[in-house]
Amino acid sequence: MTATPAVAGWFTTDAEPRLLASRCTTCANLVFPPVPEGAASFCRNPACAGSENETVPLSRTGRVWSYTDAQYQPPAPFVPATDPFEPFALAAVELPEGLVVLGQVADGFGVADLRVGAEVELVVETLNVDESGERTIWRWRPVASTEEIR
Question: Fold for domain 61-149?
């Protein structure tokens, strides 16, 4: 069985995974998710007429900007990754590059483990497994501070 990212080209799956962004080669504006390879390209900065982007890795750590939980199973046609439905937490994380990226919180963590301003790191975990293999997704895992360890 092989592991495949649920969304190709949005993140790496190596030992230190990273989200991937597109950076305008004219003004250096960053966007996530990245512009798909081969797609018509234009800079998302309205003050820039650039039309070329390059793919760049983003920082692995950031700070919680906001968070919430998903306590209720989504209605049809949305299919939950787990059956029965298991509630999960979501975090909007501000990266040092200035982007805020939404993602699920790592397995074993919930809203009780989060606070605005807390440091989190990017991890890759299994979203689901089907007949073709494992599907992976990025998630945010809280980083224990030295104050929390004491």
Answer: OB fold (Dihydrolipoamide Acetyltransferase, E2P) (2.40.50)
